[in-house]
Design a protein that fits this description.
alpha+beta; two-stranded antiparallel ribbon; 8 helices; 12% strand
Length: 221
Amino acid sequence: MSTPTRIPASLAELAVRVDELNPYHRNPRTGDLDSITESLSAHGQYRPIVVNRGSLTGRPNEILAGNHTFKAAKHLGWSDIAVTWLDVDDDAAVKIVIVDNRTSDLAGYDSVLLADILTELPDLQGTGYDQDHLDRLLDETALPAPIELPSDGADTGAAATVDYLQWGYMQWSSTRVRITQAEVELLDALYKRFVDDHDSDMGFGWHVLNDEHRAEEGAVA
């Protein structure tokens, strides 16, 4: 992979010396410095940070948006960083700091689409995700379809479909456990054996959660 330009040509005229800038004095946001540092290393700076000139606050060159990008750039030893400038009073400054963080909090993901996109990439460098994150995302999005369980005539089979195996969870009373596709298949085998042994599925949830099961029976952690 080629080394990216720290600041692309389109932002070059916005470059300011890092040692001329100051972080916001009361930033409530905690950022993932490692991920931002990885992103800057992989991609360079692809958008400017926002800095208040400070003529109305008495705090010159104070960063309102991009405080952790600034910290990551310093960590990497950058001498310059691209900046866009504002000159606002204290009330406007703090609102900008808060809304910049809050809009990120309110945003969400189409998890299935995100998992598809990450899976298609040749590697995860510079995405903020690693393989463990992607594996967990895939576990959450590739949930097994519910298994239609046979009924013993008292509609307990239909209830079991909802209580035990709906959307990748097993639930009994107030206990809920996330399960994978492989565990669904193992639970199905346990269920069929339980019904064969008892001629009913009454007590199956207690049996799974409280009894020990040998590996060949399909133990569920």
